Amino acid sequence: MTRTDTPPFAWDRVVSARGQRMNSSVIREMLKITQRPDVISFAGGLPAPELFPIEAVRQAASTVLDRYGPAALQYSTTEGHLPLREWLAARASITPQHVQIMTGSQQSLDLLGKMLINEGDVVLVEAPTYLGALQSFQPYGPQYVQVPTDDHGIDVDALETLLHTTRAKLLYAVPNFQNPTGRTLSLERRQQLVELTARHGIVLVEDDPYGALRFTGEALPSLYTLGLERAGHPDHNHVVYSSSFSKVLVPGLRDAWVQAARPLIHKLVQAKQGADLHTPTFNQMIVAELVEDVMPAQIERVRQAYGERAGQMVQSMQRHFPAGVQYTTPQGGMFLWVTLPEQIDTAPLLQQAVARGVAFVPGAPFFALGGGHNTMRLSYSSATPEQIERGIAALGETIRSALD
Fold it and tell me: Exposure of 99 by Cβ count < 10 A (0-12 exposed, 13-18 middle, 19+ buried)?
C-alpha cells in the first residue's frame, strides 16, 4: 500500500556537488522530439545502420565462441584483450602497455577528465567543441577557456597569445573532421600545436573518432604521431590519443581505446577498475576478429557513402539556402556546420524546422562559454540522398521564413 502523506525524499539536498554539475546531453534530449517518422533528422551523429557489416559480425561472434569458448564470456583483464591491444599498438609504433581499451570514447573522456582535471584547472577547448567532451569534463570542475578557430581548425597564433596570460592544464582537440564543424586542422597548425603545448607543459588530448573516414584530400599525421616523433619515446609524449571502432565498424559493441604514456595508462587502469572492471570480453574479441579482413573494406564502404551524402548536402544547400548563409565543406567524417545571419537564433528556429519535417542541432551548446546562437550542426551520415534533398529544401524554407 502506498502512503500519500509521506513527503518526498530530498534528493536535491544529498546529490554531491559533482553530481549537481552534471547536465543532460542536449543532443540526446533533442533526439526524443525528432524521432517522429515524418521528420528528416540531421540532428544525431548516427552511423548509417544499413552499412553495418551484420553478417561479418555474426560470423566473428561464432568464430570467437568456437575459439575461446567460456573465456569469451568470462571476466577479463582491465587493460583489454591483448590481441586487440597488440594490433592497435603495432599501428602506432608503440607497445600494448601504452594502450587501454575503453567502453566507448565517452568513457575515455570521462576517465581522462577524472585523472587529469582538478577543480579549477584551466581546460582549453575549441570554439565550438564536441558537446560530449564538455559533458564528460564538467563534473570535475574545470575552468574552460575557449580557443578561436577558423576554416583550418584551431588558430594557433591566437592560442599562443592567449597562453601569455593563461596557465592551462589541458587542451582538448578534434583535429580530423571536427564535431561539430567538420573542419580539419591543417598540417602546419598540427605541428605548431604539438610544439606549443609541449613547450607550455600542457597535456594535449586528441579525440579522433572520424580520422579513418576521409573521402577527399590527403591523410594527415595524428597529433599523437607528431608528438611521438618530437618526444622520441611514448612515455615522453605529452599527447594523449583517443579513438573508437564505433564509426568504422558498429557503435553497439562500444569498443574504443586510449594510447598514452604508461604513467597515465596506469592511472586509467585504476579508474576503469572502479568504473566497470573491463570492457566486455566478447565484444573485444569480436572486434579483434574484424580488424584485419573486414574493417578495411568496411571503411571504404562508409567513406564512399558519406562522401556522396556530404556532396549531396552541399549541393542541396547551394540550391536551397538563401544568400548570407555560410557552411563548411568537410573532407571526411559525419558533420558540417552552418552559420546564419546574426539576427537568427537557431534554438527557436528548430521548432519551426520540425514543423516543416526536418531537424538539426542548434550550435550554442557546442560553445563552452556561450555564443553560436546563429549556428547549427547538420549530420549527413544516416540520411539518404533523397532525404537530404527534401530536408535541406525544407530547412531552406525555414531559414527564408525567419529572414522575412
Answer: buried
Q: Is 303 exposed, middle or buried (0-12, 13-18, 19+ CB in 10 A)?
A: middle
Q: What does the mean pLDDT of the chain come to?
A: 95
CB-based contacts of 307: which residues, under 8 Å, 6+ apart? 215, 216, 332
* Cell 558498429 -> residue: 250
* Per-residue pLDDT tens over the stretch 320-364: 999 999 999 999 999 999 999 999 999 999 999 999 999 999 999
Distance, in Å, from the CA atom of 114 to the CA atom of 271, rounded to the nearest integer, reads 8
Task: Give the residue from 120, 77, 111, 130 showing the smallest Cα distance to 260.
Answer: 111
* One-letter identity of residue 355: A
What was the pLDDT predicted at 28? 62
Q: Does residue 15 belong to any structural domain of this protein?
A: no
Query: What is the distance between the alpha carbons of residues 374 and 377, in angstroms, rounded to a whole number?
Result: 11
Q: Return phi, psi of residue 154, to 5°.
A: -60, 135
Cis peptide before 128 (omega within 30 of 0): yes
Question: Per the structure, how many domains does the chain have?
Answer: 2
Q: Find all residues with CB under 8 Å of 277, minimum gap 6, and list them.
A: 75, 78
- How far apart (Å, rounded) are the C-alpha atoms in residues 298 and 402? 41
Q: What is the pLDDT of residues 122-161, one digit of tens each?
A: 999 999 999 999 999 999 999 999 999 999 999 999 999 9
| C-alpha cell recorded at residue 343 | 539576427
Please check whether residue 3 lies inside any domain of the structure.
no
Does 225 share its domain with 353? no
Range of the domain at 238: 67-290
Residue 367 CA to its chain's centroid (Å): 15
Which segments in the chain show pLDDT lower than 70? 1-4, 24-35
Residue 219 sits at φ, ψ, to 5 deg, of -65, 145
Q: How many residues does the chain have?
A: 404
pTM over 0.70: yes
